[in-house]
Write a structure and sequence with these properties.
Mean pLDDT: 92
Shape: globular
Strand content: 15-25%
Strand order of the largest sheet: 1-2-3-4-7-8-9-10
Low-confidence stretches: 1-22, 24-35
Largest sheet: 8 strands, parallel, barrel
Helix content: 10-25%
Radius of gyration: 24 Å
Number of helices: 14
Distance between the termini: 51 Å
């Protein structure tokens, strides 16, 4: 994960002295000659030596929890949009999603540990949304129930008493079964990460626990089991998913990690590293070390995590990883949006520079959690939108007498000054580095200002069932149910979209003579809340974001959830009369609608 959690700053102390000297190299890479390059939104220069498919990625594992907590996102010009469409419009082509085995307390009420509660279900929803937006997906298995990094690699609760032999089976089975579920769900998995920042320890095995740091006491064996699972998935599905190992402290120990993997005979494809310029050093050193590993060990290389602060300001009551200049080991860039953009550009350039020596072996980089803006403190524990919840300490106590790395309280965002969106969820110029390094044009607007281009009356057809939104029995009464029904072309199936400002619409019903509106019953934010007709009040439960997902296909997202949930054909019904409910948006066809103008 890199140095992202407030408590994790402790892990940097040992590396500060050597890292300071690494900062002295500095420098950026030269500008590539790109013909007819589009104007740079972020202000950074293009990058050369990026082959087709070069990963310009982001890790947005916490976005569902943030959306449930009220976070919403907009393009550079302030028009609202689905975050995946905003990212795609900025040039992002890959999404990284972490997976924890069981990030929930073992006792009622089974509260999530936080940080997105990133279980397999979360990965399926995010992975499908990314796939539908045209992106590939990197699945990041931690083989833990919560954060895993060089300071902590706790085994999942279920594995607590497993021997090495049992853990090997468990790693294989969890990897294989999870990937099978993701692929069957329609997620376009392109890479799989076998462990997270596994610097000689994984799932309760290795250096932290036995003092052996060369991966020889079981860690390499666990990694290999994960690789075997990916190999078997590739054979079953006829795919070529890449096997990724992930380390950190690249400039100090990266060459040694690669040597250990070779000696232990781990059969993997990609050597990945975390590289945060403010902590790890100069990007020219990043390029030379990755080039050495690619040449010497014939492995593809990439940066699995990077980020840089755009301000020292803290947007919530939770302390940030970088609160002031004292936390910046290296200061090659200004702490500003421009500095953030340049730092990201130079990391991409460093990885791409590998291709000048060994073509096709520098395969990309991922920005870590660019969407993790501050949200209301009341949601941190409820929806898992903070870095850790009060229940996470219970997990640590299974292995320790004290809570050192996790928490006994609901924490907030430690990352709100490192995002690529401002505190209101509006894309900053630095987000557009992903396109700017290729000289490609960016989409900086939804193209719908105040909803004017969609104002009008429509029949609204569900993509999955082919049936139409309908007011039951054509009733004009309050609380009349909204359902799906066979096309009739009558007023009961006519809905008028009227701009409500701030990217929202009010949806008036033809059954009421366009006097009443579509409404989320009881102002509920819960999955399964009923959708009905009610007298116009102008409240947020009567406002909707109508977001174009693909040409002519829309999600109708509920304002009461800040766009986190949407109109959904309940339980995938294909029957006339099937109910319409509010449900967490994940991009399935039962949540997508075609607008046909009356």
């Amino acid at each position: 994960m890199g140095r992202k959690i407030f408590q994790k700053l402790m892990a940097h102390v040992l590396a500060v002295a050597s890292a300071v000297s690494l900062c002295l190299g500095g420098g950026t890479f030269g500008t590539a000659n790109v013909v007819h390059a589009a104007p740079s939104v972020s202000g950074v220069a293009t990058v050369s030596n990026m082959p087709d498919g070069f990963a310009k990625g982001v890790d947005i594992s916490a976005v569902i929890a943030l959306e449930k907590s009220g976070a919403s996102y907009s393009f550079l010009d302030g028009t609202s949009g689905d975050i995946f469409q905003i990212l795609s419009g900025a040039g992002v082509n890959y999404v990284r999603i972490r997976v924890w085995n069981n990030p929930y307390d073992s006792k009622p009420p089974y509260k999530g540990y936080g940080a997105g509660n990133c279980d397999l279900y979360n990965a399926k929803i995010l992975g499908k949304r990314a796939t539908d937006a045209g992106m590939k997906v990197l699945i990041d298995f931690h083989y833990s129930d919560f954060w895993a990094d060089p300071a902590k690699q706790f085994a999942p609760k279920e594995w607590a008493n497993y021997s090495l032999a049992y853990k090997k089976d468990a790693v294989y089975n969890f990897t294989y079964q999870s990937l099978q579920a993701l692929l069957d769900y329609g997620v376009n998995v392109g890479m799989v990460q076998i462990g997270n920042e596994t610097n000689s320890t994984m799932a309760g095995i290795g250096g932290i626990y036995d003092g052996v740091w060369d991966f020889s006491t079981g860690v390499a064996e666990l990694m290999q089991q994960g690789c075997y699972a990916v190999d078997d998935i590739n054979r079953k599905y006829g795919r070529s998913v890449l096997k990724v190992l992930h380390f950190t402290d690249l400039l100090e120990n990266g060459k040694w990690y690669a040597e250990c993997m070779a000696k232990q005979g781990v059969n993997y494809d990609v050597f990945a590293t975390s590289f945060y310029p403010m902590w790890h050093g100069a990007t020219n050193d990043l390029a030379s070390t990755l080039t050495y590993i690619a040449q010497t060990y014939n492995k593809k290389v990439m940066v699995a995590e990077t980020a840089y602060p755009f301000t020292y300001h803290n947007a919530d009551s939770q302390g940030n990883n970088i609160g002031d200049a004292s936390a910046m080991v290296c200061a090659n860039y200004s702490v500003s949006v421009d500095g953030q953009a340049q730092a990201l550009r130079d990391v991409f350039a460093a990885v791409a520079k590998v291709n000048a020596t060994k073509w096709g072996y520098g395969i990309g980089a991922f920005y870590w959690e660019p969407e993790w803006i501050a949200v209301a403190s009341s949601t941190w524990g409820t929806h898992g939108s903070g870095w850790a919840s009060s229940s996470s300490g219970n997990y640590e106590r299974l292995y320790s007498s004290t809570v050192k790395y996790y928490s006994d309280y609901d924490g907030g965002s430690t990352w709100d000054n490192m995002t690529l969106f401002d505190n209101n969820g509006r894309a900053m110029k630095s987000l557009y580095v992903f396109n700017d390094i290729s000289g490609a044009p960016s989409k900086t607007s939804s193209g719908v200002h105040n909803g004017a281009s969609l104002d009008g009356t429509y029949y609204i057809k569900n993509v999955f069932s082919g049936l139409y939104l309908d007011v039951a029995n054509g009733s004009g009464d309050n609380n009349a149910n909204i359902q799906q029904y066979t096309y009739e072309g009558s007023a009961r199936q006519q809905f008028k979209l009227v701009s409500a400002g701030d990217g929202y619409y009010t949806i008036y019903t033809g059954a009421s003579g366009f006097q009443k509106v579509v409404d989320v019953a009881g102002k509920s934010t819960a999955d399964g809340a009923n959708i009905l007709q009610y007298a116009y009040k102008g409240t947020i439960n009567q406002k909707f974001q109508v977001t174009e997902i693909s040409s002519g296909v829309y999600a109708i997202k509920t304002g009461i959830t800040s766009g986190g949930s949407c109109l959904d054909v309940f339980e995938w019904s294909t029957a006339p009369g099937g109910n319409i409910a509010q449900w967490n948006y994940w991009g399935g066809d039962c949540q997508l609608w075609i607008l046909e103008r009356v």
